């Protein structure tokens, strides 16, 4: 009876201990052996395990390698290793560890850098008060998502004015390599008004991790952040798992009623890693060699972010466009899945326009529902001036445009400097939200007044009247 009473104790550590014992008793009975190794996959005989299950491989030199079930060949499970395959031989024992991938989460995880399994990479032990949760979870139901009706301050003027995003919105940052995605992510991490930040660095170069933490995130930013890392040299299964781990950590904070910022860099490398796994499992390649599982997992990943009745996850997913092709399969799919897209321009980068956000090609689908009609009118006017200048840029650059031949183009040229000042800022600057929006409203009001006065003068000249002098 005492044992039964102790088992009924609601204390969480005790329940976790019982769950661990149950899992252990199951996994020792469900085991098999390595039958074949093909590339980066293992074929196992003598055991059954569901898709997504976590197994442990014991090599001849007592090394332990975790692997995930990604498919079947006949009745044999196919495993993708999460560590390097070293000293693996046919006949090595494999046992089922868990039917689901689990990680430990909690508020005390902030300020830490971990891998795809939730293990620390910063040389310090994990806190003892963390709770185990499933890394692979279903997205919230559609009717459990309240409307997004609150604007989010990001500290980036170009976003806060021209591409206002909301608390719980999901946006993609699309750019080629070396255009400035990581710099923009650092600006968002420092300037966004949220409770917690979760950063997933997937497929990045090893040296970039420490650089991002030290230079882009900074000590203050790290204090409220959890960084999940799976660099480009890690196995594909680990890179895929890192995206699920980062999302699960963000979900745990959201369930506690907090507003979370999720930065995932990059979802393209997540898709590439899944492409490796899918092809290794025998899936047929489709567009650009991507198997169907990639386009099945992308919505499962991004739909887990968003607003719920308890809290919110505002997510920015970087999308690496190959050869600056914004219509490649992953980029094209994500544009349709997300609530907006921010396009970074290599041309603006070459002009020292930072951040290099091409606002004409970018869109926040929720902006009309988040800002006042006055601001929306100012944004529309600003887009009109930028578009007018872009259409006449070639004539202006070669000196073929004659001032006064088109009032709209004249105004667009006059607004070129003020607009660039509005849309650019240093990486260390955090723009004040209300001030940025007031700045663009005042700027466009002055531009509209100047346009009206120019139109009146043109009418007077056409009618043979002497134009009224313009007061300074």
Automatic annotation (TrEMBL):
Q: Name one GO molecular function term.
A: protein-exporting ATPase activity
Report the superkingdom from the record. Answer: Bacteria
User: Where in the cell?
Assistant: Cytoplasm
Q: Which UniProt keywords apply?
A: ATP-binding, Cytoplasm, Nucleotide-binding, Protein transport, Translocase, Transport
- Signal peptide bounds: none
Ranges where the AAA+ ATPase domain occurs: 167-348
Q: Which GO terms describe its cellular component?
A: cytoplasm; type III protein secretion system complex
Database matches in InterPro entries: AAA+_ATPase, ATPase_a/bsu_AS, ATPase_alpha/beta_chains, ATPase_F1/V1/A1_a/bsu_nucl-bd, ATPase_T3SS_FliI/YscN, P-loop_NTPase, T3SS_ATPase_C
Reaction(s) this enzyme catalyzes, per UniProt: ATP + H2O + cellular proteinSide 1 = ADP + phosphate + cellular proteinSide 2
Give GO BP annotations, semicolon-separated.
protein secretion by the type III secretion system
Please classify the protein's predominant subcellular localization into one broad category.
cytoplasm
| Annotated protein name in UniProt | Putative ATP synthase YscN
């Amino acid at each position: 009876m005492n044992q039964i009473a102790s088992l009924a104790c609601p204390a969480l550590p005790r329940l976790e201990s019982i769950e661990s014992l149950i899992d252990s008793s199951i996994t020792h009975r469900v085991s098999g052996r390595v039958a074949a190794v093909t590339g980066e996959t293992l074929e196992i005989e003598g055991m059954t395990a569901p898709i997504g299950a976590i197994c442990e491989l014991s090599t001849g030199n007592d090394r332990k390698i975790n692997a995930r079930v990604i498919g079947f060949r006949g009745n044999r499970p196919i495993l993708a290793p999460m560590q390097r395959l070293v000293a693996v031989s046919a006949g090595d024992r494999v046992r089922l560890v868990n039917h689901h991938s689990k990680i430990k989460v909690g508020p005390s995880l902030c300020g830490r850098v971990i891998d795809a399994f939730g293990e620390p990479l910063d040389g310090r032990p994990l806190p003892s008060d963390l709770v185990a949760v499933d890394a692979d979870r279903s997205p919230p139901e559609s009717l459990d998502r309240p409307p997004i009706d609150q604007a989010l301050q990001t500290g980036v003027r170009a976003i806060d004015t021209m591409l206002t995003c909301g608390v719980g919105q999901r946006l993609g940052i699309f750019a080629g390599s070396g255009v400035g995605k990581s710099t923009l992510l650092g600006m968002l991490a420092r300037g966004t008004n949220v409770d917690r930040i979760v950063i997933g660095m997937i497929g990045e170069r090893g040296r970039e991790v420490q650089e991002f933490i030290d230079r882009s995130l900074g000590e203050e930013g790290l204090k409220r952040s959890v960084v999940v890392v799976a660099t480009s040299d890690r196995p594909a299964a680990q890179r895929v798992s890192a995206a699920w781990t980062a999302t699960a950590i963000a979900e745990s904070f959201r369930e506690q009623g907090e507003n979370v910022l999720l930065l995932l860099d990059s979802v393209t490398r997540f898709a590439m890693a899944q492409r490796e796994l899918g092809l290794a499992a025998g899936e047929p390649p489709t567009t650009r060699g991507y198997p169907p599982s990639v386009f099945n997992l992308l919505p499962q990943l991004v739909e887990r972010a968003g607003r719920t009745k308890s809290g919110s996850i505002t997510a920015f997913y970087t999308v690496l466009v190959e050869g600056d092709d914004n219509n490649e399969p992953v980029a094209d799919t994500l544009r349709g899945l997300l609530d907006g897209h921010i396009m970074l321009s290599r041309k603006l980068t070459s002009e020292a326009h930072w951040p290099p956000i091409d606002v004409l090609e970018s869109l926040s689908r929720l902006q009309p529902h988040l800002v006042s009609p006055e601001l929306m009118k100012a944004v529309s006017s600003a887009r009109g001036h930028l578009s007018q200048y872009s259409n006449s840029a070639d004539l202006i650059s070669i000196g073929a445009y004659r001032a006064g031949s088109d009032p709209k183009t004249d105004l667009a040229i006059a607004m070129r400097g003020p607009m660039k000042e509005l849309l650019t800022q240093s990486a260390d600057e955090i723009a004040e939200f209300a001030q940025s929006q007031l700045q663009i409203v005042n700027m466009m009001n002055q531009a509209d007044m100047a346009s009206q006065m120019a139109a009146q003068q043109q009418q007077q000249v056409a009618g043979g009247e002497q134009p009224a002098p313009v007061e300074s």
